[in-house]
Write a structure and sequence with these properties.
TIM Barrel, 18% strand, alpha/beta, eight-stranded parallel beta barrel
């Protein structure tokens, strides 16, 4: 089992500049047992959301990942996940290619249909479309990206997007292209798109729910003629770690407003190891998580030193 850390939420820290904390945690993660570092794709958090109770600073993810690519050496970098409606997918593919080149082939492209109506409409991008439309946009965006990362020239004519004989130059460093992750647990559409287009899936829920979703993915793979094992099966979670039961109890109280309503994974290293073993038994190969007190660095270091090595054989 491998692990990725998502920097979420951004925090200003003692300097008042949220980038300073991101830089510190990225350097630590790069020198640790973490496999990847992830940023969310948001522009506005005004407070009142599950796990985001107060207004917080937000950095644009692609710009920040480019900076992280330049100051790290080993760790893979991704978005969990890009909201497809926010960008023309051809421009997004160019940005992803650029990130892959800057990082010397360490990027993962994470895509999703988007959900944050308030930020979309606040920035004047129009009326937020219903989920079926956003999912159709996601499917077309996947086809656009794969066309641009395939054999040139790239042509595409869809309901929302078009390409006209594009010869993408330069190509990404990773061949045939950077891995594509699709985030979401929708059984009928999202997991079908994973089977057709992606190298990673990312779902959420209890071990029992996750195991069922992976079973649905297996069925989609069989229908489209794709090997199920060709897809890395990952989950997203909120994690709180403490050295002992007393620290866990204190953090549970101090961070309660920064935790989702249900489903947070909270415990000592040994307790979290047992939880992740249950996910491994359900078919999970990869865990991406946020921890609300990441800016302190100590919980990130503790997880890397105590939890990740214990699960290396799962």
């Amino acid at each position: 089992m491998q692990f990725g850390l998502q920097v979420n939420p951004y925090l200003a820290g003692p300097t008042g500049n949220p980038w300073d904390g991101v830089e510190r945690v990225a350097r630590l993660a790069d020198e640790s047992a973490f496999d990847s570092l992830w940023l969310y794709d948001h522009f506005l958090y005004e407070g009142g959301y599950s796990g985001h109770p107060v207004s917080e600073p937000v950095l644009e993810c692609f710009t920040t990942l480019g900076a992280l690519a330049a100051i790290t050496q080993r760790i893979r970098l991704g978005q969990l996940v890009l909201g497809v409606p926010y960008r023309n997918p051809a421009m997004m593919a160019k940005m992803a290619t650029t990130l892959d080149l800057i990082s010397q082939g360490r990027s993962i492209l994470g895509l999703g249909a988007g959900w944050h109506r308030r930020e979309y409409e606040a920035y004047g991008w129009g009326a937020f479309e219903p989920a079926p439309v956003r999912l159709r946009r996601l499917e077309e965006a996947l086809r656009v990206v794969r066309a641009l990362w395939g054999e040139p020239p790239a042509d595409f004519a869809g309901e929302y997007y078009r390409l006209d004989g594009v010869r993408e130059n330069p190509a990404p460093l990773q061949r045939p292209h950077p891995p594509i992750l699709i985030g979401g647990s929708g059984e009928r559409v999202t997991l079908r798109l994973v089977a057709e287009h992606a190298q990673f899936c990312n779902v959420a829920g209890s071990p029992e729910k996750v195991g069922r979703l992976f079973g649905v993915l297996r069925e989609h793979c069989a229908r489209v003629g794709r090997p199920y094992e060709a897809i890395t099966r990952s989950i997203f979670a909120t994690v709180v770690i403490g050295r002992d039961e007393a620290e866990v109890a204190a953090k549970r109280e101090r961070l309660r407003d920064f935790l989702p309503g249900e489903g947070a994974l909270i415990g000592t290293p040994d307790e979290l190891i047992a939880i992740f073993r249950a996910y491994a038994d359900a078919g999970c190969q990869y865990v991406i998580f946020r921890t609300p007190d990441w800016i302190d660095l100590e919980p990130v270091r503790l997880f890397a030193e105590r939890v990740i090595p214990a699960l290396a054989d799962r």
